[in-house]
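hi got a favour to ask and not much time before my train. below you get a single protein, a line of residues and a line of whole numbers that encode the local backbone shape. could you go over both lines and see whether the tokens make sense for that sequence. a few lines back from you is plenty, here it is:
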Amino acid sequence: MSRLLRPGLIVLGVIQLVVGTWTLFFPASFYNDVPTVDWTPPYSEHLFRDFGSTTLGIGIVVAAAAIWLERRLVIVALLAYLSYSVTHFAFHAHHLNSDSPGLSGLLLAFTILSVLIPAALLPAALRIRVT
């Protein structure tokens, strides 16, 4: 699993950097163009820009962890990612749109993966040698 730590962090970091940048700078596009986001209206530019900047911040921390692979930084980055992804999954698991079973299933699969990937990387992070 330790061989997958850096690539896994890179994937998680890129996802957060892309979503964060998109949401921060183009909040209306994120709301209108990402399937399932508009299931819980109304649109709020303020809320989406705040979400975007927070997501971008998590992406920066995860990217830094991928670059330096320092034990404490990697653990904090994964825990920060999990603090978001677990609650995100829990929300969507209880708010699926019955009008769109295909999108609901896809959304659930992605949110489950967003929990499983960082959770699977955490044991490898705990094994990083402290220098």
The mean pLDDT is 94. The helical segments are 2-25, 27-33, 45-68, 71-93, 101-126. DSSP finds five helices and no strands in the chain. Residues 39 and 95 are 9 Å apart (CA to CA).
